[in-house]
Amino acid sequence: MCNRTHCRIVLLIFLQFYVLLVQCESHYTIIAPGTIRSNRNYTVCVALHNASEEAHIKLDILSMDSSLHLSQEVTVRPNESILTDFVIPQLFKRFRYQLRAEGIKGLIFSERRNLLAKDTGGPRIYLESDKGTYKPGDVVQFRVVILSEHLKMMRIVEPIRVQILDPLGNRVKQFKDIQLNRGIFTGKFQLSQQPLAGTWSILVHISGKYNQDKKYTFQVERYVLPKFSVHLEAPKDLVESERFLPITVYGKYTYGRYVKGTVKIVGTIHDTTIAEGIVIDEDSKAELKIDLEKLTLTRYDLNLALKAFLEEKYTNITAEAKRVVNIRKTRYKMNILDRDIEFRNGKPYRIGVHVEHWNNSIVRDMSNPVVMEFKGVNYTSFLTENGVARFTLQNDAGEDDMFQFWYKDTGKTYPSVDIVPPQPMSCVLQTDTDNFKDFSKPLEINVTSNDPMPFLMYTLTGHGNIVRQEKLQLQDQVKSHIIKIRPSIEMIPNSQLLVFYIDKGLFKYCEMTIHLPKTFENKLSLVGPTRIKPGQNITLNLKAQPNSLVSITAVDKSVLLLNSKNILQKDIIMNDLLDDKSYTSPVIRGSTSALSSPDVQTGLVILTNAKHEKYSFLEIEKSSLDQMYYRVDFPETWLYKDLEITQPNTPLTVKVLDTVTTWELRAFSVNDETGFGMLEENLEIEAFQPFFISVNLPYAVKRGETVKVPVTIFNYLREQLQSNVSMIGRSKDFEFVNEGNVAGAEQNETKRSLMLDIPANNARSGIFMIRPQRVGLIDIEITATSGVVSDRVLHKLKVEPEGVVHNRKQEVLISLSQIKSNQTTFQAEIPADIVPDSEYLQLTVSGDVMGSTLENLDNLVQKPKGCGEQNMIYLAPNILIMDHLQSLEERMMATNASSGLMEKAKQFLDVGYQQQLAYRHSTGGYSVFGPDSSTESNWLTAYTTRFFIKGQQYSAIENVYIEDALKYLSQQQLDDGSFPHRGFLFEPAHQNRFGFAAFVLLTFLESPKYARKYRSTIQKGMTFLNENFKDVQDVYSLAIMANAFQKAGNSSNASEILQKLKSLSQQRNGLMWWTNNLKSEESANDVELTSYILMAMLETSPARDCLPIFNWPTLWAYRP
């Protein structure tokens, strides 16, 4: 007896100590949206509770598939809560992103959560125009509205461009670098008298980090405005037993008077059509009835399509209206709302069913019963004054059970599986938004809990991000409190509120969605007379908040009858706001991920060291040790078969693979008679076992490096298990390594084990350290055993040779013009110090000497970047590649891939063009760093202008930039006709004064238009070259001079230079090239030099003479 008393005392002391320890423990909460969006703010709420000292916490947003890594460190004082913002760059759907939090001082912890990524984001862009349809010669007036995600003004420094495109995609007008006035740009342009008819577009593009587009369309056609509209009124729903459908039809002129004329009503249901007619001779409406017995009805609900045609009495002009009426078989509809289901132990025990008329009015019948049948038992109830019948269940509902309800002629069936219990919460939130009138009064949210609340903290999420937080210290451990929140546009139309507190180490919370009316915080009103005479002066009363920009539009109502899609409507904006929600990773019903989590409504991820209860929805029976299965088959594709079907039923026996996963099966077929068909719904098969091993292996490792192999054991049984986990391998595959990178003590150790205690419905991980010993695929065998269950898997780990990769290439040209076959031997030159088992040979054959280059043409299309010189280095190849692709198009050799490459190159040309303008001086010249940091460079100006001229056929490059640059260069010309080297370059040009003069002249000669305009400049420069070319010995300068003479039409001088160059050429193995290297060693500069000479020779020499030169640059690129 004394021993028992002593044990009780010790236990009570231990419990009191534990409670005191829990109460004194410091807790943190880190709350953030579960969804991350491109070019939007991402706000994280960090709070410290019950702490005695401040904490330093590091927050990271990182991508597991790219280099994105954003980091911030925050310091949080005890009982403090703060918000910290991340500015998110462009995201990509295919990449995975995580939020990581790490306590580095005060509290030590590390947690991470996966985030859902949305590649859309950035500013909200809306457009409107005064009309939706225009006639030739009209002036199109439009507005562009660019606002933040909360519909507020935002500062955008990136260039904004507006383009007007005709139906063929031709740009007919451009507004560049527009300036917003309080987020609004207003523009206009006039249509010609002969514009293309059809759908025109207004395209808004924000450059830079946003790279965002918005498209708006309007119509251009020849039309006459309608003068009246037709209105068709009929009930939305009609019970079939009522037989007659009442219809009202009338026409109204745009000035409000009724239309006289003849009305024809046509009703169609399936293949049955009925028509009724009536004449309207008075200023009134026409009343008709359609007899449903004249239509072919079925035992199902049907849709009756109505059309009303009204022919005006005076002009015989006809207009029409449409409407759909639902023909119902039953008189009432029945619904079960979530709020009318009460749960006990996670299962429904009280249900309320609503009975309504089809027009949504309440059925007030307290004499006829509503019957519910459930599990063979009939329950009877009567409707309340609110039209609700309530039932209390006698038996628990299973997933396969059905609820059946009847009221008079109406029945309704609900599967039990559709009735899902709400997530258990520790408190209740209540508020009244029905009486919301304006934003001046705070919303009151009543928080009620069964337990005393030491404090309350809330986060408010609007438009997908946390917009507000507050921590409230409560006195006297109250069980209820009223939170006051001032409404704002961030909460329109819906916002999500999460309220929580931590009590005795437990995270307790409740959440709700706040529904506010679809209204705006910025109020505006416009008042004027309702009836006036034409030409009369009137006064409009505009009420708006100070410091506002108000845009007013007034159009003829007839315009809206023709097309009203141009109007910027409230619903469009509200739906846009509704779409921006925060979500977390989806919970799969019936899976082990379906655990209690405070992120269902709010879409938040919560990191905390406080505890919260979790409930598993999955129960699986244990398996015996004797049923151990060896899992070795882990392909990513299970079935990929073609089957010849000869019988109506074809059994297909297949073995499910060994991966613990869900397999999705899809299928389609082609029948000789009926053609193509496919599954209406894909089949999902879940492969699962309650105890299994999960191994995370890298794609590949290096031989000899130490590798950590994490092994996780999942236990979804009802009890805790102690598992012996072992890794087994052949001695020659790998060796085990101890901490400190030391090999295992036992020689030829082939097995290593560890013990893991795995709680019920949980998992634990362990790490094995190995060092691979051979190249190739090695076996990694893992076993996990306990007293009742076990698992065994065999995975393959790819091991690559160590060292640094070196590629050696050999290439030979084979001509089969004279022979049918050729035999060539390659002697592989393998270095003596090669890493064993790392040899790799690859043979590539191409039928085109340019094959390798053209196959990798997309690698040359790169986005321009860097300074003025670097930007042009990237931009110029894009233009040359477009020239090549254009030639393919002209010869009808273009493919889908080349079309896509052309679009990509055009896009990069636009980017490079815009960026190059940043380095433009007011003189028209260009420099490496721009007008504020460097003087004009004559070489860069000539190079930029030459490619701007080339690029005009692919992009809307303004003539003014070309003309200003040519004017600048002409002014730089010296009296002798040469041009001075001027301005800084990272890679100075190799030409002497003669070569540089020819280089600049090539820019003037690029376009016949400018060649005519600057004829005197060109003549002066060519005279300078003509007088000196015979004395020039520099090969590079001669090459450029030959091209200049060819362009200028002086072929004799060009031929003389080419003859001179032939004598200076290098020749070997049937190849010809040129070099400026005194040692006659080939270099990258020789490719440019030889290419210049080849371009000049192609104008005068036969192709066979050019082939040895043409082949050399291609082969040079494949030198080792």
UniProtKB/TrEMBL annotation:
<feature type="domain" description="Alpha-2-macroglobulin bait region">
    <location>
        <begin position="429"/>
        <end position="562"/>
    </location>
</feature>
<dbReference type="InterPro" id="IPR019742">
    <property type="entry name" value="MacrogloblnA2_CS"/>
</dbReference>
<dbReference type="Pfam" id="PF01835">
    <property type="entry name" value="MG2"/>
</dbReference>
<keyword id="KW-0391">Immunity</keyword>
<dbReference type="InterPro" id="IPR002890">
    <property type="entry name" value="MG2"/>
</dbReference>
<dbReference type="GO" id="GO:0004866">
    <property type="term" value="F:endopeptidase inhibitor activity"/>
</dbReference>
<protein>
    <recommendedName>
        <fullName>TEP1-F</fullName>
    </recommendedName>
</protein>
<comment type="function">
    <text>Binds covalently through a thioester bond to the pathogen surface resulting in pathogen clearance.</text>
</comment>
<feature type="domain" description="Alpha-2-macroglobulin">
    <location>
        <begin position="637"/>
        <end position="727"/>
    </location>
</feature>
<dbReference type="Pfam" id="PF07678">
    <property type="entry name" value="TED_complement"/>
</dbReference>
<dbReference type="InterPro" id="IPR041555">
    <property type="entry name" value="MG3"/>
</dbReference>
<comment type="subunit">
    <text>Heterodimer of a TEP1-N chain and an TEP1-C chain non-covalently linked. Forms a complex composed of TEP1-N and TEP1-C heterodimer, LRIM1 and APL1C; the interaction stabilizes TEP1-N and TEP1-C heterodimer, prevents its binding to tissues while circulating in the hemolymph and protects the thioester bond from hydrolysis. Mature TEP1 and to a lesser extent full-length TEP1 interact with SPCLIP1; the interaction is induced by microbial infection.</text>
</comment>
<keyword id="KW-1015">Disulfide bond</keyword>
<dbReference type="Pfam" id="PF07703">
    <property type="entry name" value="A2M_BRD"/>
</dbReference>
<dbReference type="InterPro" id="IPR047565">
    <property type="entry name" value="Alpha-macroglob_thiol-ester_cl"/>
</dbReference>
<dbReference type="InterPro" id="IPR013783">
    <property type="entry name" value="Ig-like_fold"/>
</dbReference>
<dbReference type="InterPro" id="IPR050473">
    <property type="entry name" value="A2M/Complement_sys"/>
</dbReference>
<dbReference type="GO" id="GO:0005615">
    <property type="term" value="C:extracellular space"/>
</dbReference>
<keyword id="KW-0732">Signal</keyword>
<dbReference type="Pfam" id="PF17791">
    <property type="entry name" value="MG3"/>
</dbReference>
<keyword id="KW-0882">Thioester bond</keyword>
<dbReference type="InterPro" id="IPR008930">
    <property type="entry name" value="Terpenoid_cyclase/PrenylTrfase"/>
</dbReference>
<feature type="signal peptide">
    <location>
        <begin position="1"/>
        <end position="24"/>
    </location>
</feature>
<keyword id="KW-0325">Glycoprotein</keyword>
<dbReference type="InterPro" id="IPR011625">
    <property type="entry name" value="A2M_N_BRD"/>
</dbReference>
<dbReference type="GO" id="GO:0002376">
    <property type="term" value="P:immune system process"/>
</dbReference>
<dbReference type="Pfam" id="PF00207">
    <property type="entry name" value="A2M"/>
</dbReference>
<dbReference type="InterPro" id="IPR011626">
    <property type="entry name" value="Alpha-macroglobulin_TED"/>
</dbReference>
<dbReference type="InterPro" id="IPR001599">
    <property type="entry name" value="Macroglobln_a2"/>
</dbReference>
